[in-house]
């Protein structure tokens, strides 16, 4: 299970590591996936939940499974969805936009709420803060590249975890519009002290998204 962000009535954005083949599953094959939009409770659809197949998957060509650099991928739905108050595309920042350290951000997903715990059935959200990249790089043994963004709570206790991969790190502007700052990528455990979560920095891939999707 992975999360994703709605970009348009046809395109989703997720993490490249979600769509890599394993010894058991051929996750790079589009027909293996189903996308549920407007879902809040796992396995409980309602009148505003939409299910779609996936037509194609485009993982970034420079994704590195060892460093997790360029951990970003696109999914094209097999048929368009109607955008509603329950299914809305997130805004994309310009390639030059900078999310400052200390800015409040939101994470969402159905992942585990404790390291080693079970996934949650109800969609969860939590508030975190953007963490200074230099500090984060030191805390995470110099594994953070310029294509990554760190967010979390340095005192621990709040973080994305297993099952949240590919989901959004979003920031609201002064008018309440949400912009996609990051894609949930990796971390050192979950919610540990001085171990922020790491996200793919969306601004670094804005032109790539535009080229592939037109969005």
TrEMBL record:
Task: Kindly state a single biological-process term from the GO annotations of this entry.
Answer: proteolysis
Q: Which UniProt keywords apply?
A: Disulfide bond, Hydrolase, Protease, Serine protease
Molecular function as annotated in GO: serine-type endopeptidase activity
Query: What Pfam families is this protein classified in?
Result: Trypsin
Keyword Protease: yes or no? yes
Against InterPro entries, the record matches this protein to: Peptidase_S1_PA (IPR009003), Peptidase_S1_PA_chymotrypsin (IPR043504), Peptidase_S1A (IPR001314), Trypsin_dom (IPR001254), TRYPSIN_HIS (IPR018114), TRYPSIN_SER (IPR033116)
Keyword GTP-binding listed? The answer is no
- In this chain the Peptidase S1 domain maps to 1-214
Q: Which domain of life is it from?
A: Eukaryota
**Listed SUPFAM superfamilies:** Trypsin-like serine proteases (SSF50494)
PANTHER family, sorted: ACROSIN-RELATED, SUPPRESSOR OF TUMORIGENICITY 14 PROTEIN HOMOLOG-RELATED
What's this protein's name?
Peptidase S1 domain-containing protein
């Amino acid at each position: 299970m992975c999360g994703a962000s709605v970009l348009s009535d046809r395109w989703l954005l997720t993490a490249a590591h979600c769509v890599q083949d394993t010894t058991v599953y051929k996750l790079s094959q589009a027909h293996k996936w189903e996308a549920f939009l407007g879902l809040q409770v796992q396995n409980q659809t309602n009148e505003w939940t939409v299910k779609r197949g996936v037509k194609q998957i485009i993982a970034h060509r420079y994704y590195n499974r060892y460093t997790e650099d360029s951990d970003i991928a696109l999914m094209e739905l097999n048929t368009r969805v109607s955008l509603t108050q329950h299914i809305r595309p997130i805004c994309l920042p310009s390639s030059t936009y900078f999310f400052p350290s200390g800015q409040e951000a939101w994470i969402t997903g159905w992942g585990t709420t404790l390291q080693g715990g079970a996934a949650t059935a109800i969609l969860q959200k939590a508030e975190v803060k953007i963490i200074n990249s230099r500090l984060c790089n030191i805390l995470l043994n110099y594994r953070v590249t310029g294509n990554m963004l760190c967010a979390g709570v340095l005192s621990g206790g709040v973080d994305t975890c297993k099952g949240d991969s590919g989901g959004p790190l979003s920031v609201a502007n002064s008018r309440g519009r949400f912009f996609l700052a990051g894609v949930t990528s990796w971390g050192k455990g979950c919610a540990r002290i001085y171990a922020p979560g790491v996200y793919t920095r969306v601004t670094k891939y804005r032109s790539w998204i535009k080229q592939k999707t037109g969005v």
